[in-house]
Amino acid sequence: MTWVMVIALIAAAFLIAAVALKAPRKGWEAIGAALMLGAVGFALQARPNQPGAPKQAEASAQVSGASLVEARKQLDARGGQPASSWTVIADGLARNGRFGDAAGVMLGAVEKDPKNADAWLALANDLVAHADGTLTPAAQYAYARAAQADPLHPGPDFFLGLALATNGKLAEGRAKWADLLARSPKDAAWRADLELRLNRLDAFIASQQAQAQGR
């Protein structure tokens, strides 16, 4: 009975994505692959007879994925336009910590529309998250394509600066944020948060320099 329910859920999820969300036919293969990966994971790890006991790591991944998606939406440069079906599916996967699957879906989005800055940005964030925070060459390329597609979009420089700082390149990350702040409108919704983050980064850099001088 458990497998009957799993198969039914997979079929329902695919129908929702393909019909209700009107995912482009070109992306059906990626959606199907993501669902099948989930089924394989269930087959390898599931223990239906065991009582439920969610792990803290799994909860943390979901919170992290949800936070990443919400942060990107706050920097959305499209003026509140509805998200594409690709992004809806990928964000759902990312919220559950399935960043690799989310990146696979967004690859279909950028192949269909290479000039979509938000799609490139979502892909870049998913690639960084999938690599446990590491700024890979593929993610750097995706950030560059996002900035190229929309030079006024604050997202690429914000998240690239964050990734650089997280990977120990504090000066490079600070330069990205400082440049973004300098060209951000005074009434920009993200300006106050960016200023706060930049001040905190400056304080951290100063403390690191002080520790190095004290040795």
Structure commentary:
- The protein is an all-alpha fold and 215 residues long.
- It is built from ten helices and no strands.
What topology does this entry show?
Blueprint: H1 2-20, H2 28-45, H3 56-74, H4 85-95, H5 99-112, H6 117-130, H7 137-149, H8 155-166, H9 170-182, H10 191-214
Helix pairs in contact: 1-2, 2-5, 3-4, 3-6, 4-5, 5-6, 6-7, 6-8, 7-8, 8-9, 9-10
Rg over CA atoms, rounded to whole Å, is 20 Å
Helices and strands, in order, run as: HHHHHHHHHH
Number of domains: 1
The CATH homologous superfamily is termed: Tetratricopeptide repeat domain
- Which whole number gives the mean pLDDT? 77
Short characterization:
The chain is mostly helical and 215 residues long. The chain has helices at 2-20, 28-45, 56-74, 85-95, 99-112, 117-130, 137-149, 155-166, 170-182, 191-214.
List keywords for this structure.
single chain, 215 residues, mainly alpha, Serine Threonine Protein Phosphatase 5, Tetratricopeptide repeat, 0% strand
